[in-house]
Design brief:
single chain; 12 helices; 8 strands; binds 3-hydroxy-3-methylglutaryl-coenzyme A; binds magnesium ion; EC 4.1.3.4; metal-binding; metal ion binding; HMG_CoA_lyase_AS; HMGL
Length: about 300
């Protein structure tokens, strides 16, 4: 049965923007984050403490997080998080006053190598001290698993492998594991079967769905996993985004479309659809990108 409430994780400022090759100012990122919070988002992934050589668009991670956490731009009641793939990233994030971080692994060996330059086993070894150190500082850690429904290099991925990496992240101390359909190749029954396998070891309320919409299946896949009891959904305003290490990957499922779906199902998310749609309209015009939210386009068309 469906959950009564769904917690939305807005990843637009990170997953949505990380792939943009044209410069986006720190001020624009901060305004986007503020507008998302004003629309009712209570959890916003704001930045990524990764190497600027790997992901140039996230090079201003310090400025973004400092403005929020130390410059008074954070709103009370909103959690702002950042990706931290290693201790170097975590230390920098802690210096900026971050409240919550995320480590990101993969269920595919090839994707792990391309994305974070190490094997799955090495990544888990690398994350262990990151999680320990964060928790010691009172900073919560979310875990991501990429390629849960397919890999750009390896094709099909065994749900058992997804479960194994998820288990390791959960055992390490991640309070939640977000399951990434990085390239959006999943379909509803496949998503259900994958989730059933992972949920044998991890309570379903500790799992999140992070679906990209490359093949237009993300909303259908979300409906399928909502039926299974998923109550945390990652999404990106206007469907912005794409992964730099997954060629052809489109953006995340659009936040506006998810909120429209949830509203129709009578599931509360706390997000105001009109304000969110206006935010999607604003950011896509500002950075000169098409708005990939169908609900957003319908609500803001002039
Ligand atoms: P590496 O080259 O193996 O690391 O990269 P290294 O330790 O050998 O360091 C190499 C250089 O990077 C050094 O600089 C370090 O200082 C620097 P140099 O001496 O050459 O000038 N460096 C850093 N700089 C800033 N922040 C850091 C950091 N660490 C090292 N934290 C590393 C390993 C993980 C750093 C690299 O591979 C990397 O940055 N990868 C980022 C990949 C990424 O951001 N991908 C996108 C996010 S994941 C995603 O989108 C999927 C997700 O949405 C879920 C889904 O959809 O599936 C989460
Ligand atoms: Mg992603």
């Amino acid at each position: 049965s469906f959950p009564k409430h769904v917690r939305l994780v807005e990843v637009g400022p990170r997953d949505g923007l990380q792939n943009e090759s044209q410069p986006i100012t720190t001020a624009t990122k901060l305004e986007l984050i503020e507008r998302l919070a004003a629309a009712g988002h209570r959890y916003i992934e704001a930045a990524s403490f990764v190497s600027p050589k790997w992901v140039p668009q996230m090079a201003d991670h310090r400025e973004v997080v400092q403005a929020l956490m130390q410059g008074g731009q954070a709103r009370p009641g909103v959690t702002y998080s950042a990706l931290t793939p290693n201790l170097k990233g975590l230390e920098a994030a802690l210096e900026c006053g971050i409240q919550e971080v995320a480590v990101f692994g993969a269920a595919s060996e090839s994707f792990s190598q391309k994305n974070i330059n190490c094997s799955i086993a090495e990544s888990l070894e690398r994350f262990t001290p990151v999680v320990e150190r964060a928790l010691a500082e009172g900073v919560r850690v979310r875990g991501y698993v990429s390629c849960v429904l397919g890999c750009p290099y390896e094709g099909d991925i065994d749900p058992g492998q997804v479960a194994s990496v998820s288990r390791a992240l959960y055992a390490m101390g991640c309070y939640e594991v977000s399951l990434g359909d990085t390239i959006g190749t999943g379909t509803p029954l496949k998503a259900k079967r994958m989730l059933e396998t992972v949920a044998r070891d991890i309570p379903i309320d500790k799992l999140a769905a992070h679906f990209h919409d490359t093949y237009g299946q993300a909303l259908a896949n979300l409906y399928a996993v909502l039926e299974e009891g998923i109550s945390v959904i990652d999404s990106s305003v206007a469907g912005l985004g794409g992964c730099p290490y997954a060629k052809g990957a489109a953006g995340n499922v659009a936040s506006e479309d998810v909120v429209y779906l949830l509203n129709g199902l009578g599931i509360d998310s706390g997000v105001d659809l009109d304000k969110l749609a206006a935010t999607g309209d604003w950011i896509t015009q500002t950075i000169g990108r098409p708005n990939r939210s169908k609900a957003g386009v319908a609500l803001t068309s002039r």
